[in-house]
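Dear U.,

Please find below the material for section 3 of the report. The protein was modelled together with adenosine-5'-triphosphate; I have listed the sequence and SMILES used, followed by the predicted complex structure.
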Amino acid sequence: MAHPASIRVEQVSKNFGSSNVLHDITLHVPVAQIFGLLGPSGSGKTTLIRMIAGIDDPSTGEVYVQEKRMPRLDMLSKIGYMAQAEALYSELTAKENLDFFATLFGLKGALRKQRIHEVMELVDLTPHMNKQIASYSGGMKRRLSLAASLLHHPDILILDEPTVGIDPLLRKSIWQELERLSSQGITIVVTTHVMDEADKCHRLGMIREGKLIAVGTPDELKQATASSTIEEAFLHYGSVQL
Ligand SMILES: Nc1ncnc2c1ncn2[C@@H]1O[C@H](COP(=O)(O)OP(=O)(O)OP(=O)(O)O)[C@@H](O)[C@H]1O
């Protein structure tokens, strides 16, 4: 076996009432890979990663994380999840918010203080540690959410459009951090609309209308469609009749 799978999605479909939003998705993500999910708005990316994070369950099929069938409460400590909508308390400061999440993850004492400082440093928010979230910009809230998802040193990091509203310089440093985390063995699943970010992923999955229409490295997807950029490859797959 070349690489053990960190995440296995096996023949997963998802219905909301009578509407079928994911169709028969099978996907394996090896340990330490940065896997990007690309697809138009409404194609099902968030629905899929919520099932990987164990927040929702499939209608049919199975999701395994570290070979444990999801959803599973004891896997939550292994997973860091950053949603599109911020789950922050606006009347509290950044530090108070992180203190709250740290408590949920059982981080205590000096270790907790140190970790809060590390993650705040990482997202470049240290000078704003004691400001109320109500005074934060959209980008600052995204950065704080990312910091919160990293607090407990998760093995698996699941990020739903983490860099929306973040300026290019900081986006670059966040991607450097994701690469560093991956080199330490952390598996990362990230949804994105930003094509230069897609190029930084080790492997990509393209989703359209709830179907996984292509999976491969950025180079493989470009070669398969005779494209010079991921954007072109994406447009190619988007125009193919399913
Ligand atoms: N709880 C729900 N109940 C009913 N329909 C839902 C629910 N959650 C998602 N959907 C529908 O499922 C489809 C896929 O939504 P999803 O949020 O997964 O797409 P997405 O690819 O993440 O989009 P975006 O890029 O805009 O975030 C959409 O048609 C959406 O309206």
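For the text of the report, you could mention the following: The two ends are 32 Å apart (CA to CA).

Regards,
Y.
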